[in-house]
Amino acid sequence: MLRLLSVLLLSLGLALPAVAAQVVDWLDLLPEEDYQAMLDMPEIGHDWGEEAPGDFTSNLRNQDRDLPEVMYSTRVVEAMHDRAIQIGGYPVPLDTDARGRYTSFFLVPWPGACIHVPPPPPNQIILVDYPAGFAIEDIYEPLWLTGQLRVEQTSNALADASYRLRADEVRPYQGE
């Protein structure tokens, strides 16, 4: 019956309402054991070492083996797979289109993750695909994304990510 109704509505040019995107917090992407490990973790310093602020030559994959294992966790929340979500975060630009707009970037929970020590764990990094492209003018300005989240391990020269988002909308975050 539902299928017949769907066909009828589509034939009349009417669409079924889209599933509303769920607003997601970064903590929602952590499995319970990682969430607790993060709560129990000692404070981590942000020593610049040899790298000066604003130097983009380092990457998210640099590892300090003195950090707790949870800082390298790829464990995920399987229930997040294929969920329509909205999430805020900060971009780490990757690929651009012919007009210079970013079509691929990492989304991370805090600004400047590509230059701060330590980087977020892979289960706190989302690889974003946005074919429409978005002009990223400042990596310290938060974005608000809506799209379909997938549990998908991805690695490239810059970072490892445990989630991937096919974004339908990318816009500046304005305190929603």
Task: Walk me through the structure.
With 176 residues, the chain is mostly beta strands. 11% of the residues lie in helices and 33% in strands. It is built from 2 helices and 6 strands. It has helices at 2-11, 32-40, and strands at residues 22-23, 83-96, 102-108, 126-134, 143-155, 160-172. It has a 5-stranded mixed β-barrel with strand order 2-3-4-6-5. The radius of gyration is 18 Å and the shape is globular. The termini are far apart.
Provide mean pLDDT, rounded.
82
Secondary structure class reads: mainly beta
Which runs of at least 5 residues are low in confidence (pLDDT < 50)?
A: 1-17, 51-58
What percentage of residues falls in helices of 4 or more residues?
A: 10-25%
Question: Nearest-angstrom radius of gyration?
Answer: 18 Å
The shape is globular
Largest sheet, strands/sense/barrel? 5 strands, mixed, barrel
Widest sheet: strand ordering: 2-3-4-6-5
Mind sketching the topology for me?
Blueprint: H1 2-11, E1 22-23, H2 32-40, E2 83-96, E3 102-108, E4 126-134, E5 143-155, E6 160-172
Parallel strand pairs: 1-2, 4-6
Antiparallel strand pairs: 2-3, 2-5, 3-4, 5-6
